[in-house]
Design goal:
Blueprint (H helix, E strand, L loop, with lengths): L1 H21 L2 H34 L6 H18 L3 H11 L1 H10 L27 H5 L2
Helix pairs in contact: 1-2, 2-3, 3-4
InterPro entries: FxsA (IPR007313)
Pfam families: FxsA
Organism: Halioglobus japonicus
Length: about 140
């Protein structure tokens, strides 16, 4: 596995050179730029959805297993697409296709995700002890 990760940049470079040979250098450059923009757009969209779900969870909503499996997988796909190269783009497509992603995860022995339910203290007599220091007092002249 280490050998694969050591060879991956060279394989990606080889595939991009082959793309440039088969089409043109401008096509290969456009491909790299287009996948970079697409990957950044996917990351931005997934990041906004992730923060929205976390805000809802703070208000008492239940975080489903989708958050850690599907949404984070889409973030990984965005990173893989943004990396220049055809092999990582193929891996990103595998990650983006939900049923295929789940089948690959089961193949590698990933456990079935369980929903997360935050625990809240329901007692009315909650006392939190501690010390505090006002930071804005330190800022005054």
């Amino acid at each position: 596995m280490r050998l694969f990760f050591l060879l991956l940049p060279w394989l990606e470079l080889f595939t991009l050179i082959q793309l440039g040979i088969e089409t043109s250098a401008l096509t290969a450059i456009f491909y790299v730029l287009a996948t970079l923009v697409l990957g950044m757009a996917i990351l931005r969209r997934q990041g906004m959805q992730l923060f929205q779900q976390l805000r809802e969870a703070q208000q008492g909503a239940v975080l489903g297993p989708r958050l850690l499996v599907d949404d984070m997988a889409m973030g990984l796909a965005g990173i893989l697409i943004a990396v220049p190269g055809i092999l990582t783009d193929i891996a990103a497509l595998v990650v983006m296709i939900g049923p295929l992603r789940r089948r690959v995860a089961r193949f590698f022995g990933a456990p079935e995700p369980e929903p997360y339910r935050p625990q809240y203290d329901q007692s009315a007599d909650s006392v939190i002890e501690g010390q505090f220091r006002r930071v804005d007092d330190d800022m005054r002249p």
